[in-house]
Amino acid sequence: MHLSIMAFSHGLFKGKVNRVTLPGELGPFQVLANHAPTISSLAAGKITYAVESALSSIEIKSGFASIVHNQITVVCEPLV
């Protein structure tokens, strides 16, 4: 899967990932390979993603995510 995380003014992460956990408005949800196409608003919380076995995370205030054909695009306001 390919993940792109962008703030409103700059990119935060782009690369291949094994899985992603997003802070959805109705609660966190995990995205794995071949996830159903989805558009979701995001609440304050952590975006966590795995690159091979290494976990990384980014704290956000809010945002939106689009998931289609193993491409995950997140536009968010990071917590600073």
Structure notes:
Residues 1-77 form the ATP synthase F1 complex delta/epsilon subunit N-terminal domain. This is F0F1 ATP synthase subunit epsilon. It is a peripheral membrane protein. Keywords: ATP synthesis, CF(1), Ion transport, Membrane, Transport. By secondary structure, the protein is mainly β. It has a single domain, classed as F0F1 ATP synthase delta/epsilon subunit, N-terminal (ATP Synthase, domain 1). The chain is built from no helices and eight strands. Strands 1, 2, 3, 4, 5, 6, 7 and 8 form an eight-stranded mixed sheet that branches. The radius of gyration is 11 Å and the shape is globular. The mean pLDDT is 96.
Brief overview, please?
By secondary structure, the protein is mainly beta.
